[in-house]
Specification:
Elements (H helix, E strand, L loop, with lengths): L1 H26 L12 E6 L10 E6 L10 E3 L6 E3 L4 E5 L5 E4 L5 E2 L5 E3 L2 E2 L1 E2 L2 E2 L7 E4 L4 E5 L9 E5 L2 E2 L6 E2 L5 E2 L19 E3 L1 E3 L5 H39 L1
Antiparallel strand pairs: 1-2, 3-19, 4-18, 5-6, 5-15, 7-8, 8-9, 10-11, 12-13, 13-14, 16-17
Helix pairs in contact: 1-2
Length: 251
């Protein structure tokens, strides 16, 4: 009887964790540049002093992210950029380290600092800062050009360039939702060098690569799987009660 409970209990617990991943993906179906989180389940042996070969539980894992591109949507906003190919935009994380995102809805703060998600955007020499009150445009190579308020086109000057990188391997998602290179032997994530060949599309944003239909189907499937496992637990309890009743009658 305990085999049934082991299987159903571990399956129900991990199904709840899988539902959290699916819900997170669905909640970000309209988030620019979002990359869907993958989820999978695998069988694992039960650990401990009473471990038996017949006891196997299940574990839900998030092996990585889906890096397939999302749709490009034209916005017409000068500070919106969609990254081309495998390029990523470098920004400064909360701890000061360099992280990467595909989100391209840039903002200029009251101090002239260019940000994404409230985080400074990194340029060739550090965080990008543009002149206050200027009109900013972004070229196909990520170069930011600014015109002062009330000035003509001849006053257009380059004020910096976005740091665009092309990772040599798959990036890892952090708890803050930003991506970084895998940790090296020293336990550090190394910053990538700028890719001069990387480009952007100005006036556009890359949408999320999450399919709302597929995410809804997955959510329904996971919910039904959880109900099935709870039904197994309920059935096992009913069988145990019937067995106890039979034993009491024989006594």
């Amino acid at each position: 009887m305990d085999r049934i409970l082991y299987t159903a209990m571990s399956g129900a617990k991990q199904t709840m964790d899988q539902q959290a991943v699916v819900s997170h993906n669905l909640a970000n179906v309209s988030t620019s540049g979002f990359r869907a989180q993958l989820h999978a389940m695998r069988a694992v042996p039960v650990q401990g002093d009473g471990a038996l070969a017949t006891r196997v539980s299940v574990a839900a894992t998030t092996p990585g992210s889906d890096f397939s591109p999302g749709p490009i949507n034209r916005t017409g906003r000068e500070l919106d950029v969609a990254l081309m190919g495998d390029a990523w935009l470098a920004i400064q994380a909360a701890d000061g380290s360099e992280a990467y995102t595909r989100r391209g809805d840039l903002e200029v703060g009251p101090d002239g600092l260019v940000t994404v998600l409230g985080r400074p955007v990194i340029g060739e020499g550090g965080p990008l800062i543009v002149p206050l009150g200027s009109s900013v445009t972004i070229g196909a190579d990520g170069t930011l050009s600014a015109i002062g308020e009330g000035e003509g086109p001849e006053a257009l000057v380059d004020v910096g360039r976005l740091k665009l990188v092309t990772p040599p391997q798959a990036l890892q998602r952090g708890d803050d939702g930003l991506f970084r290179m895998p940790l090296n032997d020293e336990g550090e994530a190394q910053a990538l060098a700028a890719d001069d060949d990387a480009g952007v599309v100005s006036g556009a944003l890359e949408g999320s690569n999450v399919s709302a239909v597929e995410a809804m189907v997955a959510m329904i499937d996971v919910a039904r799987r959880y109900e099935m496992q709870m039904k197994v637990i309920s059935t096992a309890d009913e069988n145990a009660q019937r067995a106890n009743n039979l034993l009491s009658l024989q006594g």
